[in-house]
Specification:
globular; five-stranded antiparallel sheet; 2 domains; three-stranded antiparallel sheet; single chain; alpha+beta; 6 helices; Uridine Diphospho-n-acetylenolpyruvylglucosamine Reductase, domain 3; 221 residues
Length: 221
């Protein structure tokens, strides 16, 4: 259809489908992945599943910090499009904090590289941070260079119950003032506590709020 113009309507498959006419690019088969343990980076295509990447990285004692609850079936492209960082963002940052470089295709068909596969790249604008979270409206990401982190030797999960939201919020403030930042910190209100007990079958007593706290590190920390 030379000379014709089609509307580009990017769609992340876990989101509602768009109403616009046009074409929907599917990147499910773009699943190549190259892990460079010595550089602590992974170069991946957007169709790679987060959970599959984490399994491959674990063999090298590495992980990619973004871990949304949908990690077993969500793609890296979806993580990038939504800046979906998961509960570990409290310590390791969101998705855009763990990406070094992107290769994208604009609506005009131009291939553009953003960022650099180095720890520091301070020349020019870092437009990769702009693309991440734009849900495909600025360009179509076809390759990402991800920053990897060594797997912590140990993790622990603490469940803390509080009489109300205010008490939980004050506990969070005290916790974040400590020298060690938890790797995960999740808040549940009273209704979520009831649902977890009555629907999820978790052994919980009545509480106005609950915190799930996960520290990671070695035994000394």
């Amino acid at each position: 259809m030379a000379g014709d113009t089609l509307d580009s309507c990017p769609w992340i498959r876990t989101c509602p489908p768009p109403l616009s006419t046009g074409y929907w690019p599917c990147l499910a088969r773009a699943g190549c992945c190259a892990i460079r343990p010595g550089d602590r980076v992974a170069v991946v295509q957007p169709g790679v599943l987060n959970g599959d990447l984490q399994k491959a990285l674990a063999a090298h004692r590495l992980f990619w910090p973004p871990d949304p609850t949908s990690a077993p079936y969500c793609s890296i492209g979806g993580n990038l499009g939504c800046n979906a960082g998961g509960p570990r963002a409290v310590k390791y940052g969101a998705t855009r904090d763990n990406v070094l470089a992107l290769l994208a295709v604009t609506g005009a068909g131009e291939r553009v590289r953003f960022g650099a596969a180095t720890t520091k790249a301070s020349s020019g604008y870092d437009l990769s941070r702009l693309l991440i979270g734009s849900e495909g409206t600025l360009a179509l990401v076809v390759e990402a260079t991800l920053r990897l982190v060594p797997l912590p030797p140990q993790t622990r999960i603490l469940r803390a119950m509080y009489v109300d939201t205010g008490a939980a919020a004050r506990a969070v403030a005290r916790l974040m003032a400590q020298p060690i930042t938890p790797s995960m910190l999740e808040y549940l209100d009273a209704r979520c506590v009831v649902l977890a007990r009555d629907v999820g079958g978790v052994d919980l007593h009545d509480a106005g709020a609950m915190l799930l706290i996960e520290p990671d590190g070695d035994a000394a920390t």
